[in-house]
Write a structure and sequence with these properties.
267 residues, alpha/beta, Rossmann fold, 2 domains, five-stranded mixed β-sheet, four-stranded parallel β-sheet
């Protein structure tokens, strides 16, 4: 009788590109499965260029019927700014809330914000489907999200008759990273996989290579590219990166397990 390998990633070196302050869980899960993990953050979460739009929204919360959060980062930033304005969670009474997925919903519950809607799929299109049964015509919605994001969510909400205020509660930037050692590891074939957890991590990673796309693909020839979901996958493909791992569920644990299954199948 065979026993399932408890360390399916043993001997594999995996690069994770999450923001430094968000990498701990992913790092631990991969390490538990035997991987050697290199943290190579290609994004950093920072405040928006101006707090004024968010401050205006917070000072007029009574005008909103719904608030939609598309990430845990957005929840944390919103609540932090709410408190900075001298307000608390009680100011949110009477407002309905939608979270893009369980991680975002979990952060909201931590902050004692009641979650009314969580779509089954963790992407903007699923939010639209989940809210179609609601009466949105004439309703005012605050969409609290990253500075750079797809336009499909506010556009479709407006098509359903809602008035949408899109407010940046944080933004992602490319941190200053030392690339020489990383590039050496790539050239020496010491990296087995690179994991991307958002479209921004992909874009910023590619920006680190000022040479041609052919040169980048050459460097990544024997490296498995893992992505957390379809939006990240689409960005990778658009930039010419072959995608080898993409889990059915768009979470860090699911991505970890998908990588383990990928390498186990290749042994």
């Amino acid at each position: 009788m065979t026993t399932k390998n408890p360390k399916p990633l043993k001997g594999k070196t995996i690069v994770i590109t999450r923001a430094k302050h968000q990498a701990a869980e992913f790092h631990r899960l991969l390490t538990d499965l035997g991987a050697h993990v290199i943290e190579f953050p290609t994004i950093e979460i920072v405040p928006p260029d101006s707090w004024e739009p968010l401050d205006t929204a917070i000072d007029n919360l009574q005008l909103y019927d719904w608030v939609i959060f598309t990430s845990a980062n957005g929840v944390r930033s919103f609540v932090s700014r709410l408190k900075a304005r001298g307000k608390d969670i009680q100011q949110l009474e009477g407002i309905r809330f939608c979270a893009i997925g369980p991680r975002t919903a979990g952060e909201m519950k931590t902050e004692r914000i009641e979650v009314d809607v969580v779509p089954g799929e963790y992407r903007a299109e699923a939010i639209i489907q989940s809210l179609k049964g609601e009466e949105l015509k004439g309703r005012r919605i605050l969409l609290a999200r990253a500075k750079k994001a797809r336009d499909i969510l506010p556009r479709e909400l407006e098509n359903l008759g809602a008035r949408v205020d899109v407010v940046a509660v944080y933004q992602t930037v490319q941190p200053k990273v030392e690339t020489s050692q990383f590039l050496s590891f790539l050239e020496e074939g010491r990296i087995d996989a690179i994991a991307f957890t958002s479209s921004s991590t992909v874009s910023n990673f590619v920006d680190l290579f000022p040479s041609s796309k052919d040169d980048l693909l050459r460097r990544l020839k024997n490296v498995a590219i893992a992505v957390i979901g379809p939006i990240t996958r689409d960005r990778a493909v658009a930039l010419g990166l072959p995608v080898h791992v993409s889990p059915a569920e768009y979470t860090i644990p699911a991505l970890t397990n998908a990588m383990a299954e990928y390498f186990s199948s290749r042994r």
